[in-house]
């Protein structure tokens, strides 16, 4: 019903949606987390990790495509869950999206800080290293030597503050400006692949999957199937010693999952697609395919230039550019990364404020979060709260902690999307579905299962596990104490001239 009465112009075709997806996907994952994943977990096997994660995202993307074609509305996963499974699951999805969007913005700001500090160093402005990392985080120089211990990541705090002020005042996004920023990001990645390939040392790709540390005990079988078995056992038992080996490749796949966040943003454009049933799947899968190819090539060049042990830095692409001894190219890479990451931060914080706005309008959160400023016409109270929380996370949490927590929220949300497809196929078999997930139920089951495996890999870290479980428990308590009692759906409050009631989905022939 929302789609049929929508005032939005349906002008986006498949190519528009592919470009939108590429613009959303390319960001912190490739510019920041690739180095950490290679240095700490996978070595040159990071290329395999990207294939694993890309395959998982393809399964999830097919599920998103079915929901986006059947329910072509704005709001993405929160709206899908609300319409199909009800208010309770939608609340849980809202909690997960807070991690996906809110903490993701903080993660991006830490990457932005790394490239900004490197650029300032190039032009002769040195920022005290203690002020460029979270408390207790070791700050390393280009050679990998620890030179200081962080107190607070001031550049990350500052840039989140600036983005928050922009959002309060209201940002009218220009399609032309966005297209330019996307072009810069993609051009930087392609240039890095083309120019960097001349400086690659193929010997650094061998071995593709370094031996596990600590080494496997003598006499213990170490073929690939035994390595996979030990990796899965480690995931289930909580053993986090997955540095290198197949276990490291799987753990790295969970870490670099952040690099693919954004493909689901295509699904938010469902109300503006010309032919959602055809264009949405092409847009989502096309963007995934292009980005996976670019990511694998970028990783091949990166670990071919810089020994993977030295890549555990906030700006690995900048480090590789510096090692090429091409000052102009290093400058271009850093400017491109800073511009691209700035736009990603803006979109993520914008998305988080609008999720809170929607949940507040539904009565699940206090009405103050939906209060719109009379002059700026933006949800200013909501934006200030989100901005302060993101600034605290950016300044005082490490990149490792931020990316792991954001990935945990995203993986759990994606698993819920796959389950939603199965739920709707069971409860609403006659629902009109212009696009149907192929090989059902294999694809959604594999998607949910792979999300669960990577999720458990991240949850093997005690700090991540304790935070996530505590966060969910607290969130459920808040729902029963406030959200369920204040919900407009639960009260049957009249909204837009109609009494709020459980949504009825359209069926074939309706």
Describe the protein's topology.
Elements: H1 14-25, H2 28-42, H3 46-70, H4 76-85, H5 87-122, E1 138-140, E2 146-149, H6 154-169, H7 175-196, H8 224-237, H9 245-255, H10 276-305, H11 316-323, H12 327-361, H13 380-396, H14 399-427, H15 442-459, H16 462-486, H17 488-491, E3 494-495, E4 498-499
Antiparallel strand pairs: 1-2, 3-4
Helix pairs in contact: 1-7, 1-10, 2-5, 2-9, 2-10, 3-9, 3-10, 3-14, 3-15, 4-5, 4-14, 5-6, 5-12, 5-13, 5-14, 5-16, 6-12, 6-13, 7-10, 7-12, 8-9, 8-15, 9-15, 11-12, 12-13, 14-15, 14-16
Structure, described:
It is built from 17 helices and 4 strands. It is mostly helical. It has one domain (14-499): Amino acid/polyamine transporter I. The strands form 2 sheets. A two-stranded antiparallel ribbon has the order 1-2. The protein is globular.
* Bulk shape: globular
Structural class: mainly alpha
CATH class category label: Mainly Alpha
- Can you tell me the CATH topology? Amino acid/polyamine transporter I
Main β-sheet: number of strands, strand sense, barrel status? 2 strands, antiparallel
Q: Please compute the radius of gyration using only Cα atoms.
A: 23 Å
Characteristic terms for this protein:
Amino acid/polyamine transporter I, 510 residues, two-stranded antiparallel ribbon, 4 strands, disordered C terminus, 17 helices, mainly alpha
